[in-house]
Amino acid sequence: MSANTPCIRSSVLSELNHCNIWLKMESCQSTGSFKQRSIGNACLQYSKQGAKRFISSSGGNAGISVAYMGNELNIPVTIVVPKTTSAKAIQLMREENAEVIVHGNSWGEANDLALTYVSPEAVYIHPFDDPYLWNGIAPIIDEVIAEGIKPDAVILSVGGGSLLSGISQGLKANSLTIPIYAIETEGTASLNASIKISKYVKLEDVTGIATTLAAKQVCENAFKISQNENIVGLTVTDEEALRACFRFLDDHRTLVEPACGATLSTLYDKKISFPSLTNVLVIVCGGASITLKQLLKYAEGNTPHF
């Protein structure tokens, strides 16, 4: 229950980076983010196994997709979200008839409560740590290659690590051994912290405006990938992510959240150098609950440079 999204060449970003930048527009999914692939597949598989209710926890995008899938499959949904979740995200979940409970100051606290509702019939849909999720994301690479584009590198954002896990799986299935640039904001860089010391670590706290990246620890599968494959971890500031969101809106008429802006900022700010004929695949992960008003509010409170 996900779409084959457009893959477009960005003339602006290609010229700026002196190579071919291809944008996989996951923002075009029905729920506005790549989570429709991962969550959509997980919900579908568990429904086939007899699930009578879906239980989940989310900072936004995953919960919206669980709610959407529950509505599509006529299965009741309960989602626990932390207090940092935007009012827009909660609204979108409730519009899909989900029960939404606001609890805790972080996703981890919300998740702890969500797990108490799980039963043999009430199935837990993890927002980022489940092979079903990765299986749903992997076809992104199949779609890109089917269009005649063979990427030499991939750039994506990392929150809990499902996108990294799925893209890695898709590359392996297509016998592609290429670097993946894994981008986090400075306040949410749990993968980068683990890469630096080659140890699976958990952050004491997560901060900043990229709330959908705010997992204190990536899934173990993402960490293992970072240790065994060509993963380059990079961090950007909130200001850089925000600036990229506004520039992308101007250049491509598409509104994305700061979590996605983090990836785009590496190209707008030329943080990575690629050879001139390189095909770089960028996962525009989207963001269902962002609004221009919210971006402007972030900009006003974050920096004087907008």
UniProtKB/TrEMBL annotation:
Domain Tryptophan synthase beta chain-like PALP: 4-286
Annotated catalysed reactions: L-serine = pyruvate + NH4(+)
Span of the signal peptide: none
Biological process (GO), any one: L-serine catabolic process
Transmembrane in keyword set: no
Key words of the record: Lyase, Pyridoxal phosphate
InterPro entries, alphabetized: Ser/Thr_Dehydratase, TrpB-like_PALP, TrpB-like_PALP_sf
Cofactor: pyridoxal 5'-phosphate
E.C. numbers: 4.3.1.17
Pfam family of the protein (one): PALP
Gene Ontology molecular function terms on file: L-serine ammonia-lyase activity; threonine deaminase activity
Record has Lyase as a keyword: yes
PANTHER family listed in its UniProt record: CATABOLIC L-SERINE_THREONINE DEHYDRATASE (PTHR48078:SF2), THREONINE DEHYDRATASE, MITOCHONDRIAL-RELATED (PTHR48078)
UniProt record similarity statement: Belongs to the serine/threonine dehydratase family.
Protein name (Swiss-Prot/TrEMBL): L-serine ammonia-lyase
